[in-house]
Design goal:
By secondary structure, the protein is of the alpha+beta class. It is about 35% helix and about 25% strand.
């Protein structure tokens, strides 16, 4: 599986795996509790493959950021997304030192760390390496 099938849905916690497309939207499975649900086309859905992090030189795809976190953590879990703002920013500076601190907010870092931990706990990180 690749990030092509992993979705973030505005207003819903966590990440979702795309199961199939329907006329009225998508059938998705939550990576948090493995419950299947239907998401209407009126929801704001983002595919993780299309998300990038701002740096001072170029935008870095989320997949590369996840790879850097996996390398730093020896493919283990990252710090908790519930850590303090300064802890999250310091951690992210170690992972991606060139990230644009004016355009990447603490809430963005929190999401990236939470998403990484969800992918890691669902054993989906190895599939990212296979894509390369």
């Amino acid at each position: 599986m690749s990030l092509d099938n992993i979705l973030s849905i505005t207003g819903k916690p966590g990440l979702y795996q795309l199961k199939s497309k329907a006329r009225s939207g998508f059938v998705v499975e939550s990576l948090i509790d493995q419950k299947t649900s239907i998401v209407g086309i009126n929801h704001n859905v983002s595919v993780l493959k299309d998300i990038s992090i701002y740096t001072y030189t170029e935008d870095v795809p989320l997949k590369e950021v996840f790879s850097k976190i996996a390398e730093k953590e020896s493919k283990g879990p990252a710090i908790s997304h519930k850590s303090s703002k300064s802890e999250l920013e310091n951690y992210f500076s170690e992972v991606l030192p060139e990230y644009d601190q004016e355009r990447v907010y603490a809430s963005d870092i929190k999401k990236v760390v939470q998403w990484y931990n969800l992918l890691q706990s669902n054993d989906l990180l190895s599939s990212l390496e296979e894509e390369e």
